[in-house]
Amino acid sequence: MDLEYFSDEEYHRAFIDFGGVREEIARLLFHSLGMNTEIILDIPAGHGYLSFEVAKRFKQSRVLGIGLPNDCTAYLRIRNQNKFSPFYDRVDFTACDATRLALPAGSCDLIVNFLGLEDIRMTRGETGVLQTLSEFARVLRGGAILELTIAEYGDTPEEEIAKSVWESIGLNAVFQPINFYSDKLNELDFKLTKKRKMLYPKKMKANQAREEIEFACLNAPKIYKSFGVNSVSFDEIWSEFGSLIETHGMAYWSKLWVLIFQKV
Ligand SMILES: C[S@@+](CC[C@H](N)C(=O)[O-])C[C@H]1O[C@@H](n2cnc3c(N)ncnc32)[C@H](O)[C@@H]1O
After folding, report:
1. Buried/exposed code over 39-74 (b: 16+ C-beta within 10 A; e: otherwise)
2. Does ligand 1 have an atom closer than 6 angstroms to the CB of 121?
3. With a 6 A CB cut-off, is 123 part of the ligand 1 pocket?
4. CATH of the domain spanning 17-156+171-204+253-263, picked from 3.55.40.20, 3.40.50.150, 3.20.20.150, 2.120.10.10
5. Which atom of ligand 1 is nearest to the CA of 70?
């Protein structure tokens, strides 16, 4: 796969726009499920970009974004910017750790997820990721749907660089292979019903990768201090990978897998 460099303008909107992938996921879910979906959870919701896409498609549903308290301000700011959108009052946010959802068993029809299991690994470790999947199983009713979006590390030089950088940075925010998630979900009585590859064939230039890595090294340990999250210094990462990044760029989310499971 040939990956193109982001322009600086594209890079600054890269995570927000994501090449329209969230919109495509919402469309795929809507075509698979139709309208009979009352309560949708978006976990972990981050700034809520998937919540909003899903609310636009599922016009009868309520969408609840779930994340940590530090996500609340950004989520509600973006929701409130959309005050005049038809989905505005059907979308809300609750601060709650994904490993212990404050919701009754069997209370939801659909859980959507766009990345973030790597962040749960950062804050709660591998055990936390497994607890999160068990919580998904608990709060979904029988027959309900779980959608996961997982990044797969590719094998071009720029993708391998991204994998090595994220493995070396010390935050523990890395995805595991797809089987790790699907094996656990099989144990929890989920059946994989759809698996779709979605590509975002873009890579960061050196100045953009520098900004990304600096942000991760400086801010993640501050934001997630209460979880004991640590990273190595930016200089350490840049001295190891800087010249490789100058040559090849860095591509972190170029290949995504969208997995749709049904709770048996
Ligand atoms: C990559 S973002 C999610 C992106 C989002 N789904 C989207 O569509 O843009 C990951 C989020 O997970 C949150 N997070 C990390 N650990 C968590 C936990 N234990 N429980 C809930 N949320 C968590 C972080 O605060 C962060 O906002």
Report:
1. bbbbbbbbbbbbbbbbbbbbeebbbbbbbbeebeee
2. no
3. yes
4. 3.40.50.150
5. 25
